Amino acid sequence: MTDRVPPEIEKVLVSSQEIADKVAEMAAAIDADYAGREVLLVGVLKGAVMIMADLARALTIPVSMEFMAVSSYGSSTSSSGVVRILKDLDREVAHKHVLVVEDVIDSGLTRSWLLRNMKSRGPASVEVCALLRKPEAAKVELPVKYVGFDIPSEFVVGYGLDYAERYRELPFVGLLKPEVYATS
What's the whole-model pTM score? Predict the structure, then answer.
């Protein structure tokens, strides 16, 4: 199966098949690491919805799911580093094994804040699983235990990632043409 690519996409960086294979690989590692324990998956909205759903279905250990929405982008294409909680968790995480599920880690500023916030709530453990990581964009050291793909520090969309709330539904991760988001 080939992914249908809209004309606004310059190129596909990670195909839907590569994503499916990597999700299965990450799920196997998580299953092994958390054998005999239940994990609370905490998805960071909205981008993590796709990876969280696919990961939850691929895991064989008991899982429960929660969502949190934080923002540091506003309407920009790069992180401001100023974090706002838009939606907090609906339940306590104290004494639970928490796996924060992310779409992409770029500067690390937002996720660093999120991890400090999560650890302050008294969980048994906190780890991070991210489909994508942009090592060149890192501004802080951020421990990410499960990483799908390292990608260049470019503006990508698809598989949950958006530009102006568009392109999240694409089954792959693609490079958006600059003229789509360039300001005039």
Answer: 0.89
